[in-house]
Amino acid sequence: MPEAAGIVTGEAVGVNRYFGSLLKVDKMHDPRSHFEDAIADPAVFLDTPEELSRYGRDWTGRFQGETPLVLRPNSTEQVQALLAVCHRKGIAVVPQGGNTGLVGGSVPRNGEVVLSLSRLNAIEGFDEPSASVTVQAGTVLETLQEFLAGKGQMFPVDLGARGSCQIGGMIATNAGGIKVLRYGHMREQVLGLEVVLADGTVLSNLNRLRKNNTGLDLKQLFIGSEGILGVITRAVLRCQPAPAQRQTALLGLERVDMLPAVLMRLRAALAELSSLEFFLKGALELVCARFDDARDPFAQPHAAYVLVECESGEPASVRFHEVLAEALEDGAAADAVVAQSGAQAEALWFLREGITEAISKTGLTHKFDVTVPPGALPLFMEGIRDLAARFEGVRPVFYGHLGDGNLHLNMVQGASLADAAFRALEEEITEPVYALVVDFEGSISAEHGIGVLKRKYLGYSRTPDEIATMRAIKALLDPRGILNPGAVLEP
Ligand code: FAD
Ligand code: MLT
Ligand code: ZN
């Protein structure tokens, strides 16, 4: 392919396996000039080094890359026009939402242009009879939560990154979070979706109907597609009535192997159970060590902790207290504290939600987000402890969403291990962890997705035929391979 001024072809961005070379937008040669015929609005373009740098680094700091240009459309039409140019010229694009993803899929890795959805952030309408809200993709989760609270409603997917993550990113990753056991993932909330395909075609189905069986449900393809099949621009989401009441408690357990029994007991006894989270002793110690205002509410340490919350339409239920009292009497739990106020509930939640940040304040980490059948969690964690013991200077930290069997295992760097030596262990640690996941009939990604971090391990959870079908769908929808190249599927 001939080189035009300011454009370098070929290897620097990798060669698309199916359809030839992608073009590299040269940061030295007026990168925005490629797009100016299509879009006149200067606010769409960012290209100074200071502006670009924050789009090139992910939340964990593990993935970093450079981009020559950030595109910030504020309408579906602008997304359409920009992607049409990228498709025509073969310019690779990484869609980026709140950039809180934990698998490296939201940042450029090879000089790609970043397409940020942050300016496409209007809440377009709330429809009470259908209990649905229509939002643009760049709407931040917390903004939506606040908007719906003002309408006596709530959005039922919630997670620790709520202040930054965007609805488009959450749909693209099929985010889970702290209420999946009651309300499901993002997938269960999406009624309608608008997506711009790689060539600029707009697939718009802003459906508000609960019942609409009219052929293939195309939106399902894009939920969890991590930016490789299309750019999500708008969505219609289900809402729930805001709960009149939240009851929150923390249980301390004598042994880790008591976790499944507590799960079964609370799930059976509490019809309004909305969250059931867990962490082990080491995780609580880390939060208390890293944050001055975090405090272990118990007099004695416990092997495991379960955070339980009920959301109900009724004022305070005595049932919650009765169920916890029974659990203490029977020895299912060793101790319990019940939050007496919103502030106390928040303090208990911080012990769970602060773990991710406490880890990043401690050192580097090899991050895992796996599921196993919940009954097998204790045995699985025992297997992980044995495995971790083989690596000096590596400490396993265990926490996650008990109700879903979702363990966020972090293999955290100890002080005795230098950064390079710790990083070099990545494969040596990852392979046996995933082999154990397979032995336990689990999944290598519960809720964070595959991104770049796990793409070479996809075969642990998907068959060769499934992966080949994914590639065929990718080739159909993005024939030039411009959308998030190298995410999910290995180049
Ligand atoms: P980004 O990080 O910007 O992007 C994620 C992926 O989606 C990338 O591949 C990107 O290319 C693609 N993408 C983004 N926007 C679009 C779009 N509009 N169209 C097409 N593709 C797009 N995740 C959970 O599931 N559960 C949790 O409990 C949870 N807790 C977290 C807690 C913390 C403290 C942090 C930092 C992260 C947590 N996460 C959790 C991970 C993360 O917040 C989610 O994956 C979230 O859904 C990502 O949204 P985002 O807008 O930040 O997307
Ligand atoms: C969580 O549930 O806290 C997250 O998904 C983030 C993490 O894995 O640390
Ligand atoms: Zn999680």
* Share of residues in helices: 25-40%
- CATH class of the largest domain, anyone? Alpha Beta
**Morphology:** globular
Helix tally equals: 15
List segments where confidence is low: pLDDT < 50 over at least 5 consecutive residues.
1-19
In CATH, the architecture of the largest domain is 2-Layer Sandwich
Widest sheet: strand ordering: 19-16-18-17-23-24-21
Query: Main beta sheet, described?
Result: 7 strands, antiparallel
Small molecules in complex? flavin-adenine dinucleotide, D-malate, zinc ion
Average pLDDT score? 94
Kindly give the count of domains. 4
The count of β-strands is 25
Rg, Cα atoms, Å? 23 Å
Q: CATH superfamily of the largest domain, called what?
A: Uridine Diphospho-n-acetylenolpyruvylglucosamine Reductase, domain 2
Q: Provide the CATH topology of the largest domain.
A: Uridine Diphospho-n-acetylenolpyruvylglucosamine Reductase, domain 2
- Ends apart, CA distance between termini: 20 Å
Q: Assign the structural class, choosing from mainly alpha, mainly beta, alpha/beta, alpha+beta, or little secondary structure.
A: alpha+beta
Summarize the structure.
The protein is of the alpha+beta class and 491 residues long. The protein has 15 helices and 25 strands.
What does this entry look like structurally?
It is a single chain. The protein is α+β, with helices and mostly antiparallel strands and 491 residues long. The protein has 4 domains: 10-119 and 466-477, Uridine Diphospho-n-acetylenolpyruvylglucosamine Reductase, domain 2 (2-Layer Sandwich), CATH 3.30.43; 123-241, Uridine Diphospho-n-acetylenolpyruvylglucosamine Reductase, domain 3; 245-352, 2-Layer Sandwich (Alpha-Beta Plaits), CATH 3.30.70; 363-449, Alpha-Beta Plaits. The protein is built from 15 helices and 25 strands. It has a 7-stranded antiparallel beta sheet with strand order 19-16-18-17-23-24-21, sandwiched between helices. Helix 8 crosses helix 11 (355-362) and helix 12 packs antiparallel against helix 14 (426-439). It starts with 6 loop residues before the first strand and ends in a 14-residue tail after the last helix. The relative contact order is 0.12. Residues 1-19 have low confidence and may be disordered. Residues 59, 94-102, 105-106, 117, 137, 159-161, 165-166, 168-170, 172-173, 175-177, 226-227, 231-232, 356, 447-448, 451, 484, 487 line the site of flavin-adenine dinucleotide.
